[in-house]
Amino acid sequence: DRMYERRWALALLAQTMARLRSEFEQAGKSAEFELLKAFLTFGNQNIPCAAAAADLGVSEGALRVTVHRLRKRFRELFRQEISHTVTSAEDAEEEFRHLLAALSE
């Protein structure tokens, strides 16, 4: 069961990443997405801001805001993906917590 749940969670994460990538592509920001997507897996303290900010031509503060917004949008899309698999908002929230637990094991 744990292996299945983990695979299911990873599949939803992959779908979420594809949707987020598509949003950036539609906005003509594919290169920006390729640089920023790595920040979805870093903890806040581990963001290598200086190099990434230089690559994007922005300040480190602006990069941190961009990463914060990217993560927020990712969470929103992930919740939307989950909501397609359940019947109610309460079930979606429970499934969200369950999938996060499956990923952390």
Description:
The chain is mainly α and 105 residues long. Helix content is 76%, strand content 0%. The protein contains five helices and no strands.
Task: Sum up the structure in keywords.
105 residues, mainly alpha, elongated
Shape: elongated
Helices and strands, in N-to-C order?
Answer: HHHHH
* Number of DSSP-assigned strands: 0
Rg, Å, rounded: 15 Å
- Please tell me the overall pLDDT: 90
> How far apart are the first and last residues' alpha carbons, in Å?
12 Å
Q: Structural class, judged by helices and strands? A: mainly alpha
Q: Helical content, roughly?
A: over 70%
Low-pLDDT stretches = none
What's a concise summary of this model?
The protein is mainly alpha-helical.
How are the SSEs placed, and which strands pair?
Layout: H1 2-26, H2 30-36, H3 49-56, H4 60-83, H5 89-104
Helix pairs in contact: 1-2, 1-4, 1-5, 3-4, 4-5
